[in-house]
Amino acid sequence: MSHSSAASFRELPPELFPVIVEHLPFVYRPPILRSLALTCHRIHDIVFPELVYDTVRLVGEDQASTTLNTLIASAELVTAQDIQDKGNPSLSHCIRHLCLESSIKTPMRGLTSLDALQKLIDVDGLQHLSSLTLQVHSEWDGTYEEDESGPRLRLPSSFLTSLDGKCPNLKRVQLSDFPQQFGKEWIEPHIFSIKRLTSIRIEGNLLNYPSPTINLSQLPPNLHTLDLHVVDRGENINSNVLHGCVIPNLCTLILNDFFASDALAMNSFWRAHPGIERLELGRKVDGNWFDNFEAGMLPNLKYLQCSADHALVLLPRVSNSLIKLSLWETYNAQGPYLLRVVSPGGVLPALRSLGIHRVSRNSPEPREGHRWRENENGDVLEVKPSKATRQFDGNYIMSLSKAAPNLEELELMGSSDDTLDSLTNSLSRFSKLQRLTLSGAINMYSKPFFARSANWEDYAEYNLGVVDKKNYGKYAPEIFDEAARDLANGCRTLDAVTMGTLFGWLSLRDGLSRKIVRECDGGMVKEVTKTRALGNIIGREDEW
Fold it and tell me: From what superkingdom does this record's organism come (predicted)?
């Protein structure tokens, strides 16, 4: 930021700061607001404490428990008169968006961050809470107990009852990694009973259900976001739970571990929900979801995640309006084929975000478009079967740049064996590309983007074992920092480069990421700095 623009920023009216903050994605708010508080006394007084504590992310048991217990002590001293006189007398009363990410050792011995959170709610410490995200998973501590029924990680129904009674402004709830058994009770009926909710996201295991199912008949009436990733140890949930279900304001539908058994019934569901703007069908979504899909269905669709097979049906009808597209299970050249051939005109003019998961092996059966290839002039050649295997090379990325000229973020999951110059020359065709995520393989049978990355010390989570030098490929950076710098020097619009082991996720827990600091706009890289690893952000501004 230049001296003049920084001075102008410091002179902004106080009432504009909350407006600006509301336009920031959740993942950026805490660090930006903390930095603003340190800018100068005037801005500090504007943003602290209300805006600094508006959006809070707690990571790890130590930070979460310490912070929550401090907030409890403050909230317990507050009286009703204090609230009337001072507005938000406790720091916790400023919190509107809270994310808790933690790993709790089991069997549990003593109080946890979840206990502290429950107490903070019970002492009226989160009266203004609007959204709550809990990404808490159990970690076995390596010990055994004679009584196997001892304390395990469960979210008691009393917690959700407290949320309902003590957080009157709560609109959005996201629960991840929780087993859903409370003895004979289940999580989702308690969540669905909070009728003011507009967004429900549940990711966890349905334990001991009579059959893998979920009852959607009692959803809150104003729900606009439904995200379900629940599975009963291997059996997917039948899509018939959606049949006959009408959610009047549904805007976002995200499903995983589901299968469709009746395509005609699903067509009725799509017709009943023309307001859907974001549809994500995960890797474990099977069956015929779009057979006989008709023109005019899903007219407002802007964000789509689906398999290559589903994309063959959908893209001819929805590609022109798409802002974001993520494709699962593409083989060889199917990615560029779907964009350049299946999509009308071969161009997606509104597309700003693209993710492609490419299966490393050849398909056991012929796949439409898997042998497609074009040159820079647009001449199309179908290669011989013996040469059909396609990696993420310069030619592949060149075709993507023709299909999505306005792309701002790109995620590629699969392997590459091309030169640095070829890769960066093609990436430079994207005049607006800011964020690049190169995911490794989805399992140990697939190859990472750069073969050498399997030997990086800071990418040990990939766990492929040692790769022999003769298999390093044409470009073999010794460390991630080198790869980030080289890619950013070759593609001068990049602001961030990320390497992960997950596709289609926002938060890449084991990923590596570097923010690019340049000597000047569009100039060479001055330095790369460590930052939080994130996948594609567009469309996920209200997620952690």
Answer: Eukaryota
Tell whether pTM > 0.90: yes
Block residue for tokens 């993420």: 392
- Residues paired with 226 in a beta bridge: 200, 253
DSSP secondary structure of 228-273: EEEEBTTBPEEGGGTTT---TT--EEEEESEEES-HHHHHHHHHH-
Helix (H, G, I), strand (E, B) or coil at 400: helix
Render 448-469 in DSSP notation, one character per residue. Answer: -SSGGGGG-GGGGGG---PPPG
Where is pLDDT greater, at 290 or 387?
A: 290
Peptide bond into 107 cis (omega under 30): yes
Which tens digit of pLDDT belongs to each residue from 51-64?
Answer: 999 999 999 999 99
What's the rounded Cα separation, in Å, for the pair 62 and 39?
28
Task: Please report the DSSP string for 170-208 in residue order.
Answer: --EEEEEEEE-EETTEEHHHHHHT-TT-SEEEEEEE--S
Residue 99, SS3?
Answer: strand
| Dihedral over Cα of 447, 448, 449, 451: its sign | negative
Write the pLDDT tens digit of every residue in 323-361.
999 999 999 999 999 999 999 999 999 999 999 999 877
DSSP H or E segment with residue 360: none
Q: Where are the domains of the chain?
A: 1-52, 302-484
